[in-house]
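Exercise 7. Given the encoded structure of a 161-residue chain, write a plausible sequence.
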């Protein structure tokens, strides 16, 4: 088999994983212990995030001609890629959170809903709460005035009696 025939299935695999992705983060995993890597993979798997290590040339070929092509400019050295099709900010958030306990994990860059972010930008994206948290906060802000209004009405009713 020619080298190209061996590479094609891997490139196709990467293409299928990034197809329809909302969020992608590439990181330098150099220096992670086996225990840390296993823990990281478990956390990401539980949050429906695909996490794999690929050769940079495979990632470059898979992203050529796609909206994720901008990520290629940071593909140097050991690279892992975290892909989410659900929550666009979750790869950045979870990797940044994990990097606090494992400083050898370094986020390189990412793409969130079609926008490219460098290392600093992706760290800012990581600060955005999850979609569920944001929805909970929104609903809480709707509920608060209604609850306060009901309390006032209740106090007026009890005063009148």
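Solution.
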């Amino acid at each position: 088999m020619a080298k190209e025939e061996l590479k094609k299935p891997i490139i196709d695999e990467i293409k299928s994983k990034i197809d329809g992705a909302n969020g992608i983060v590439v990181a330098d995993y150099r220096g992670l212990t086996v225990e840390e890597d296993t823990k990281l993979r478990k956390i990401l798997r539980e949050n429906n995030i695909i996490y794999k290590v690929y050769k940079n040339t495979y990632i470059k070929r898979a992203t050529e001609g796609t909206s994720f092509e901008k990520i290629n400019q940071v593909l140097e050295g050991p690279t892992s890629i975290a892909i989410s099709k659900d929550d666009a900010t979750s790869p950045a958030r979870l990797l940044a959170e994990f990097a606090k306990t494992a400083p050898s994990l370094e986020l390189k860059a990412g793409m969130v809903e079609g926008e490219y972010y460098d290392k600093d930008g992706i760290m800012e994206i990581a600060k955005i709460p999850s979609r569920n948290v944001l929805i909970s906060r929104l609903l809480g802000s709707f509920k608060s005035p209604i609850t306060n209004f009901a309390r006032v009405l209740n106090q007026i009713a009890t005063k009148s009696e």
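Remark. The mean pLDDT is 87. Students should compare their own answers with the one above.
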